[in-house]
Amino acid sequence: MIYIGIDPGLDGGIVIKKPEGIETVIMPTTTIKKADKDKRVISHDGLKDIFKVFKSEECFAAIEEQQAMSKGGIRQGVISMVTIGVGFGALLQVLTDFDIDFIRVNPQDWQKEFGIANGDTKAQALEVCQDLFPNLNLLGTPRSRVQHKGIVDAVLIMQYGIRKHKDEI
Predict the structure, then answer these.
(1) pLDDT category, 81, cuts 50, 70, 90?
(2) Secondary structure in 3-state letters for the chain
(3) pLDDT by residue (tens digit) across 5-29?
(4) d(CA 40, CA 19)
(5) What is the CATH number of the domain that holds 106?
(6) Which burial class, exposed, middle or buried, applies to 91 when counting CB atoms under 10 A from its CB (0-12, 13-18, 19+)?
(7) In total, how many domains does the chain have?
(8) How many whole angstroms separate alpha carbon 50 and alpha carbon 53?
């Protein structure tokens, strides 16, 4: 069985647990030309390249549910919400296209599973992740100096998915 965890943001990550080990991938993105400026979006082709190898494999994925956010009391704009929805839809479509069973997970649910509460949830997630997988490389690239937050979240989303999938069996 192959398990997959997905943190779907532009700075998200994908984690794949195979019998031979765990692979981490930063979310593939591309730039599209807009009239006023370039815009970074999730790459459909990049997603297909990642997931096509699992078409004939038995897989189970957990993907974090997307939602509108606010920062400092300022609500997220419509264009930003549409971008999030398009990226999330691309991920759901690729999972469906390659017959990968999946669950959608609210961030609060997987965080609660690992005892992550109010405060700096990213720092708490990193600590839990390092406790569960002390030898896993959480860097986004070989040149990175800090752990990739999208990969850290994707690891815990994957682990949450494994627990829920095993509960169902």
Answers:
(1) low
(2) CEEEEEECCCCEEEEEEECCEEEEEECCEEEEECCCCEEEEECHHHHHHHHHHHCCCCEEEEEECCCCCEECCEECCHHHHHHHHHHHHHHHHHHHHCCCEEEEECHHHHHHHCCCCCCCHHHHHHHHHHHHCCCCCCECCCCCCCECHHHHHHHHHHHHHHHHHHHHC
(3) 999 989 999 999 999 999 999 999 9
(4) 34
(5) 3.30.420.10
(6) buried
(7) 1
(8) 7
Tokens of 130: 């390092």
CB atoms within 10 A of CB 113: 16
pLDDT tens-digit readout, 117-160? 888 999 999 999 999 999 999 998 888 888 999 999 999 999 99
Whole-model pTM: value is 0.90
Bridge-based pairing state of the strands 38-42 and 29-33: antiparallel
Provide the residue range defining the domain that includes 32: 2-168
C-alpha radius of gyration, the chain, whole number: 16
Please count the other Cβ atoms lying within 10 Å of the Cβ belonging to residue 72: 4
User: Could you give the C-alpha distances from 105 to 38, 142, 147, in angstroms and in order?
Assistant: 31, 29, 22
